Amino acid sequence: MRAYDSYVAKQGGRMAERVREPIPDCWFCATPKAKTSREHIFPRWLTGELGVRDEEVTPMHVRLEAPNADHVMTKRPLAGFVATRICQECNNGWMSELETTARPVLTESPRKGRLTRAEAEILARWFAKTAVVLNVSQNFRLLVEARDRHELAIGIPNNATVALMRLSPAAGKTVDWIQTSPMTALVPAAMEQAAVQRIIERTLQVNIQVGDLGAVVTFAARPNTTEAVEGYLPAATPIWPLPARLPAWGSLPRYDSARDVAVTMRIVQNPFVR
Asked: Where on the tree of life does the source sit, at the highest rank (predicted)?
């Protein structure tokens, strides 16, 4: 059992839905007894580029068992946020390649024109990977299954969505995030509340800010994909799955904080019923 799950269990009461798996040797591949390394959640080149390597941040997540008691953890420098149980092959292989391709897109300034298909795919995969690294390494329910974590090595899982927004670093945060689940849902009239609650709790939402760019990443509840849990309606602009027309940088909505952006799920049918 993960340390966070043990902590919640000891508090008593109901535990929200989560992925229940044995803790792997590597979160991102099935290699047994893999030689592990330490992965900076936000790479050193990025925090250096933004000039925030020593900036202190306070991680936050929302506990659905007690939605009025958001869990805020101890403030730490960004350089101290690392993930373990990531093997050297993943860290030095596809993850390193992804950082190399994402760097010019993440640091582009000024941002002009319309996003290209290549930029959208790179940003979507980078933010999805970062959301999963946060989910496996920080205190929160595990909500991304092994098959979806492993698929990030070659692409983006088909239960993931990514939407972009612009943020104001002047508001006091340059790198920030929050882990939660969608708080509202549009559902069929006949669906029972217990089923709706289970789907919501098994869906991951991570809002991430890096500089003036932010993303809302969601991973839908399994076993089905967006065929059953269709579309998310964030107050941000979807870029994954790829829309028919990608947005212009200047058209992205602007916010002061990534933590302020909510998501409404549209549930078509119960993915836990075959």
From this structure: Bacteria
Q: Residue 75 belongs to what domain range?
A: 23-267
In three-state secondary structure terms, 169 is helix
**Rounded to two decimals, what is the model's pTM?**
0.91
Report whether 133 contacts 204 (CB < 8 A).
no
Residue 5 lies in a domain: no
Domain count, the chain: 1
Give, for all 274 residues of the chain, the pLDDT tens digit. 787 878 777 877 678 889 999 999 999 999 888 788 888 999 999 999 888 888 888 777 776 665 554 555 567 888 889 999 999 999 999 999 999 999 999 998 889 999 999 999 999 999 999 999 999 999 899 999 999 999 999 999 999 999 999 998 665 668 999 999 988 888 888 888 888 888 889 999 999 999 999 999 999 887 544 444 445 556 789 999 999 999 999 999 998 888 888 788 777 777 776 5
Parallel, antiparallel, or unpaired for β 60-61 and 71-72? antiparallel
Asked if 168 and 241 touch (Cβ cutoff 8 Å), the reply is no
Structure tokens, 220 = 């839908």
The number of angstroms, rounded, from the C-alpha of 51 to the middle of its chain's C-alpha atoms is 23
Confirm whether 10 is domain-assigned.
no
CA distance 164 to 125: 12
- The answer as to whether 16 is a domain residue is no
What values do phi and psi take at 146, rounded to 5? -55, -45
Instruction: Give domain status of residue 11, yes or no.
Output: no
